[in-house]
Amino acid sequence: MSRLKALTSMDLEDIARPPVYDVLVIVSGILGGLYASIMPRATAVRLAVDVSSIPLIIAIIYLAVRGAAGVASLIANGVFQLYLSYPISRRAIATILVLTRILVPSIVIVGAPMLIASIMQFNVVSRDIARFLAVFSGRIIYLYFIGIVFLLIALASKRAMLAGALSIVFFFAYIFINGILNMLYFLLGNEVFLRIAQSLSFSDTLNNYLIGLNIPYWTLIPLPVASIVLTILLYMYVEKRFEPT
Amino acid sequence: MPILEARGLVKRFGRIVAVNNLSITVSEGDIVGLIGPNGAGKTTTIRLCLGILRRDRGEVRLFGYDPFYEPKSREKVGVVFENPRFPEALTVEKMLSYTARIYGVEADRVREVLKIVGLYEKRNALIKTLSAGQKQRLALAHALIHEPLLLIADEPTSNLDPIGRSEILDLLSTLNKDYGITIFVSSHVLPELARIVNRVALISRGQIVFQGTPSEVEEALKEKIVRIRAKDVEDLAKMLSEYFDRVEVRGASILVYTDNPGEVYRIVGELMVKRNVVVYGVESLEVQLEELLRKYR
To answer: How far is B13 from chain A (nearest CA, A)?
Structure first.
């Protein structure tokens, strides 16, 4: 466990180097603070949704640029093989990547403005902390899904530019498919298209569900399940197949 | 007792066979040199032995464990990679502190090891500001921090000037003699490694083609090649093969492998006189790694 902690800290310190990480965190924090003070909201869910919208986009960009491209750089420049030369299992190294390249940045980038907003409008948030945290969790689950796809792309492509570009392409394709599904629902009136689109945009669907819109709860299941399946795939790939060359 | 044992290793990258049925053993106390030209499969062999790459066939035992599946195998192994790279945003001391924590050694060891490799003055420098030689020293410090029983070094002298190369090799020799560390080191420069190792494995096209002691290599290096440029190389080669065991036609030249170059000069002189052979030039060459590999291939 101490080995895992030491390597996690080392990797985090390396990726948290100025200026990218801190600039992103500061920008999203300021945005959150401004949003909360300029446009106060009546409910905790509304506040959480509005404050975390722009940081969500910033986090996705970060996951592509620093997450996926960063991991591919690790492979290309030989640092990954250094990690593999330690007496640490491949499973643990996969866990470190998930933590340092997906979860910690996502939590920091989305969490910082939400924390500022919750302080500035404590009276609103304190009335419904559970739903405020549910919005936050929804954002993190959505980012985790995107991040795990980006990470798989990085491990498979092994080239920083390619990994970054493919990650961005994947994300826009994902948004595009979502748009097509919504359009098909609009044109054909078949509810299945709408529900699939809602499943894809998990975070927004969860927010609408929390606001009280009539959304079947099962639409919230596919993305977390897909995230679990992709995580299992990631671990299997790193443990059995991955080579840092 | 073997610390590292690889048997029948095969590694393919697509259609390219990088390592082909390779077997090697490193026993406690040895300094084994894996020597071969660029692209021979040295780095791939080392990565397979460390479990960094997945082997297609064969078996590796590092301290009795399979390094691909059992990280415990690497607990007592220090590694120096070719062109070593570290997280660039960290300082030298910070990097080694993290490494010390990974191996579960005391933080005091960081400064101790920095003094051993002569990098103590640079302890607060960012890794990205270090020169190639300093990075090589950092790699050694990094490999030694947990007092390993086995040090695996892949081309540790590459990118260094002659003085730097000599210093690193002397340090490896000291680590073996004074600290009892077993060393498995690769290089493409045979003579420099031959002076510190006690066993040599020559690798070519992914296969070990010769394993022996440095004195056996030295013996092979004593052999000279006499190169003869002549009008009709095929005919002259046929005549020379009556006198010498190894005569090869290489382009417009004939190569004669012998311990006694003077004899070649004498016989060529005789053939010029007695059989009117036209010779343009005769010269002696030192046997180099490539020639040695050809001999054992």
So the answer is: 10
Residue B132 has pLDDT above 70, yes or no: yes
Contact with chain A for residue B271, Cβ under 8 A: no
Task: Give B82→chain A minimum CA distance, Å.
Answer: 10
| Mutant choice from B56, B85, B93 vs A, greatest count of A C-beta within 10 A | B85
ipTM tops 0.95: no
A155 token code pair: 């491990």
CB contact set of B60 (below 8 Å; sequence gap of 6+): B4, B5, B6, B7, B9, B48, B49, B51, B66, B67, B68
Q: What is the mean pLDDT of chain A?
A: 89
Q: How far is A165 from chain B (nearest CA, A)?
A: 23
Measured in degrees and rounded to the nearest 5, phi and psi for residue B85 equal -125, 145
Name the phi and psi angles at B36, rounded to 5: -175, 165
Domain borders along chain A are 2-240
- Compute the distance between CA of residue B245 and CA of residue B250 in angstroms, rounded to an integer: 16
Using DSSP, state whether A202 is helix, strand or coil.
helix
Q: What is the pLDDT of residues B148-191, one digit of tens each?
A: 999 999 998 887 777 888 888 888 999 999 989 999 999 988 77
The rounded distance, in Å, linking the Cα atoms of B183 and B163 is: 21
Q: Are A227 and A144 in contact (CB under 8 A)?
A: yes
What is the count of residue pairs from A and B with beta carbons less than 8 Å apart?
Answer: 77
Test mutation, A22, A84, A158, chain B, max B CBs within 10 A: A84
CA distances (Å), origin A184, targets A188, B141, B295: 6, 62, 72
pLDDT tens per residue across span A175-191: 999 999 999 999 998 99
At B180, the amino acid letter reads G
- Does the distance separating the beta carbons of A245 and B90 come in below 8 Å? no
Cβ distance A87 to B75 less than 8 Å, yes or no, reads yes
Signed CA dihedral, A147, A89, B66, A78: sign only:
positive
Q: Tell me the domains of chain B and their CATH numbers.
A: 2-219 (3.40.50.300), 223-296 (3.30.70)
**Structure-block tokens of residue A52:** 């975390």
Q: Which of residues 16-35 of A touch B (CB under 8 A)?
A: 17
d(Cα B23, Cα B20) in Å, to the nearest integer? Answer: 9
Question: A88 and B103 in contact by Cβ < 8 A?
Answer: no
Give yes or no for residue B28 having a pLDDT over 80.
Answer: yes
